[in-house]
Amino acid sequence: MIRATSVIRAAALARGEIVDRIVLDHGDRHRRRMAMRGVGGLAFLLDLPEPTVLDDGDALALEDGRLVWVEAAPERLLAVRAGSDHALKRLIWHIGNRHIPAEITDDAVFIAYDHVLAEMVRGLGGSAEPVERPFRPEGGAYAGGHAPAHGHDAGHPGEPAGGHAHHHGDGRYHIHD
Fold it and tell me: Where is the UreE urease accessory N-terminal domain (predicted)?
């Protein structure tokens, strides 16, 4: 099976033979190694040196130089809004306190659809409207300003001695020795 061994970021994508496209949700855009099949039927193995977040518009470079276009799949989300900047900041604090992935835009915060969180937001005076769109959550403090990253520097306060704990941004959380 042919392998995709590198990512060409959308901003750096100049030209190349795009032979297929892959449509992935937020969770599947954070991978290192995974068998994939493009929309057009091309089967390949994603085989990157480290876990990488694939963004909408990136391309996966196959071993033979051909490219597979990456497209962010629409997902069921909640668009959280409030009547003022202060009210929205307050909602963001409550959402962040639950350690769930969130995408922050100029006028809304997008989170994965969850009826319990929708009721919480409404109970705090905000609106939470279901929408379907690609999800591009923030990467977190240790992700280098990009989407979720796997690695960390040395331990953080409150982490177990000799190891570290982290959240992947897609519901997975674990501790390394």
Answer: 3-68
CATH (residue range 74-134): 3.30.70.790
- Rounded CA gap, 34 and 46, in Å? 5
State the pairing for strand pair 74-81/173-176: unpaired
Residue 12 tokens read as: 């750096």
The model's pTM is: 0.70
**Which positions ≥6 away from 45 have C-beta within 8 Å?**
1, 2, 3, 4, 33, 34, 35, 36
pLDDT, tens digit, 9 for 90 and up, residues 94-131: 999 999 999 999 989 999 999 999 999 999 999 999 99
DSSP-assigned letters across all residues of 133-150 = EE------TTTTTSS--S
Q: Name the CATH superfamily housing domain 3-72.
A: Urease metallochaperone UreE, N-terminal domain (2.60.260.20)
